[in-house]
Amino acid sequence: MRKWWINKGTGCFARRGTGLPMLLMACVLFSGCGGKAREQIDTVGTERAGIPNTGTEEKTASESEGGTEQAAKDLNKAGETSKNAEKKLKEEGAGIAHETAIDGEVDFTELKKENPDIFAWIYIPDTDIDFPVLQSTEADDFYESHNAYGESSSQGALYTELANMRDMCDFNTVIHGKTSDGATGGLFDDLHRFADRDFFEKHESIYLYTEDNVLTYTVFAAYERENTSLIRTYDFTYGTGCEQFLKDMYGIREMGKNLREGWEEVTPYHFLITLTTQSQSNPEKQFVVIAALTSDAAGKINRQVEW
């Protein structure tokens, strides 16, 4: 069995016992994946989180200024929708512990007082998606029928299954959320906006906060797929399972599928998140938005890939 080690701090991967030439080649290949997106977003992720950039590349003054300006644009782009959402959270107490990531900060100490199952917070600019992400030790689907406080609720909460690690080091972390059913609002209602080509092209970034890190992901695919469990369909613990997922993803010829130019060669050595919710038009389908990690502010995302 071949084992590969990936270090997101350096962007390199190598097999144990690999010579220097192969290691250098691996570094070049990995750093070339989504290079432009990485440069554009690295500074944004670290500036918004207030965490120093731990990457190995030094940025020029102009690049740093550009990153800061981009960060400001991302915050401003939230516009009236985000302002209204923040106002609702603060005034009506709709957000758990009155928390929001609009200001680029998340207080996990207070959140965990409300519910220790909270391990992350997801924020997508220009949408109302600004919520905690939970994982239950009781049952994979516990938060399908319970809110972030752990109370019974048809709206549910955003959650991952136990097959995914909380440290976000899996190849594909699947985050579940509901869409409105007519009677109850869905936390992932705005996810469907990525089905619109114009919105998809203009909105690349997803921010995911953890207790000691901020991760920036670039959205590269949005489409409908059969309504089956990704975690149970693919074995993401092995490179072969990751490859099969990518092969199937790129092979889907779904009408309305959005795929970002320049992201046609994602590999098992990337770190992905898949946001999934019900299709608005077909109960036998699910709508997914897939994004790849392009900034790891604290340099903690690593994993071993087995084949």
Structural write-up:
This protein has 307 residues and is α+β, with helices and mostly antiparallel strands. The chain has a single domain, classed as Sortase (Sortase, Chain: A), CATH 2.40.260.10. It has helices at residues 20-31, 35-49, 61-77, 79-92, 108-114, 197-202, 230-233, 239-251, and strands spanning 3-7, 12-15, 118-123, 130-134, 158-159, 172-176, 205-210, 213-226, 258-259, 272-278, 285-296, 302-306. The strands form two sheets. Strands 3, 4, 5, 6, 7, 8, 9, 10 and 11 form a nine-stranded mixed beta sheet that branches. The chain is globular, with a radius of gyration of 19 Å. The model is unreliable at 1-5, 7-68, 77-83 and 85-94 (pLDDT under 50).
Please specify the SSE layout and strand pairing:
Blueprint: E1 3-7, E2 12-15, H1 20-31, H2 35-49, H3 61-77, H4 79-92, H5 108-114, E3 118-123, E4 130-134, E5 158-159, E6 172-176, H6 197-202, E7 205-210, E8 213-226, H7 230-233, H8 239-251, E9 258-259, E10 272-278, E11 285-296, E12 302-306
Parallel strand pairs: 4-5, 6-10
Antiparallel strand pairs: 1-2, 1-12, 3-4, 3-7, 7-8, 8-9, 8-11, 10-11
